[in-house]
Design goal:
The protein is α/β, with parallel strands linked by helices. The chain folds into 2 domains: 121 residues, Zincin-like (2-Layer Sandwich), CATH 3.30.2010; 99 residues, no CATH class. The protein is 52% helix and 9% strand. The chain is built from 11 helices and 5 strands; from the N terminus they run H-H-E-E-H-E-H-E-E-H-H-H-H-H-H-H. The chain has a 5-stranded mixed β-sheet with strand order 1-2-3-5-4, covered by helices on one side. Helix 7 crosses helix 9. The structure holds zinc ion (ZN). The site of zinc ion (ZN) has 4 residues, from helix 5 and helix 7. Zinc ion binds next to helix 5 and helix 7.
Length: 244
């Protein structure tokens, strides 16, 4: 047990330092309150280049996205720092793409959006990642949460049509490929996000469909109860298992 703890602490320190070294964007995010980004509502910062007339839309968008999560899963209790950038360049500086991403560090979570991220599907998806992170805690999220489950859950509040597929179109090989992509998210190097654009879209489609099926298998058990079970040291593979 002692050894496991030691191992986890070393992994944690390694992950923090590798994250900091590889992503100066982490430092940007951490210091957003000291930057020229504007705080327009609690925990919501926007790019100074953004027009003031857009502020209201952004606050309302975040509110609607949280409400979508509440309607679907019963609650939204996370309070990540939310950052909206206004250009691809700024999005990159803050560690995301043109759309957005949720970034977890041991002491906080950041949800950063790019210029194309002002969309309820994208905002709800990323905010749900933050909720998952809060419920599981940093260590479990970072080292035990399979990426396909994380993304599959995020996709449950992301209704973009291009991610909708028929479950019958998924081959066993594809299921095996997606469900064996592992847990590493530290430097976004997980195979879930590699193989080209089409392949990555397919991975999202498959993870969405599989998680929808898993959640529908036992309607007496909510997503948050399932996450609680994992937190109480049950295995992800057991709690989120696909029944034939
Ligand atoms: Zn996602």
């Amino acid at each position: 047990m002692k050894n496991i703890k030691k191992y986890l602490i070393i992994l944690l320190i390694f992950s923090i330092f590798s994250s900091l070294l590889l992503h100066s964007s982490i430092i940007k995010r951490m210091s957003v309150q000291f930057s020229d980004f504007i705080l327009i509502s609690k925990n919501i910062y926007v790019d100074p280049q953004m027009k003031k007339t857009e502020y209201e839309n952004i606050v309302s968008l975040v509110h609607k996205a949280k409400q979508r999560i509440i309607d679907k899963f019963g609650a939204f209790s996370s309070s990540p720092i939310i950052i909206f950038t206004n250009s691809s360049k700024m999005a990159k500086e803050y560690g995301t793409n043109d759309f957005g991403s949720a970034i977890r560090v041991p002491w906080n979570q950041y949800v950063v959006f790019g210029p194309k991220g002002q969309n309820i599907d994208i905002v709800a998806h990323e905010l749900l990642h933050a909720e998952i992170g809060d419920r599981l805690g940093y260590i479990t999220t970072q080292f035990k949460l399979p990426v396909w489950i994380d993304e599959g859950i995020g996709m449950q509040v992301d209704y973009r049509k291009k991610y909708l597929i028929n479950i019958n179109s998924i081959s066993q090989n594809e299921i095996d490929r997606v469900t064996s992509t592992g847990t590493s998210q530290i430097i976004n190097a997980n195979p879930f996000w590699s193989g080209g654009k089409e392949q990555v879209i397919r991975n999202y489609q498959i993870s969405k469909t599989l998680v929808t099926k898993i959640l529908a298998q036992d309607l007496n058990q909510s997503l948050y109860e399932m996450l609680d079970k994992v937190k109480k040291l049950e295995k992800f593979e057991d709690v989120f298992s696909l029944k034939p």
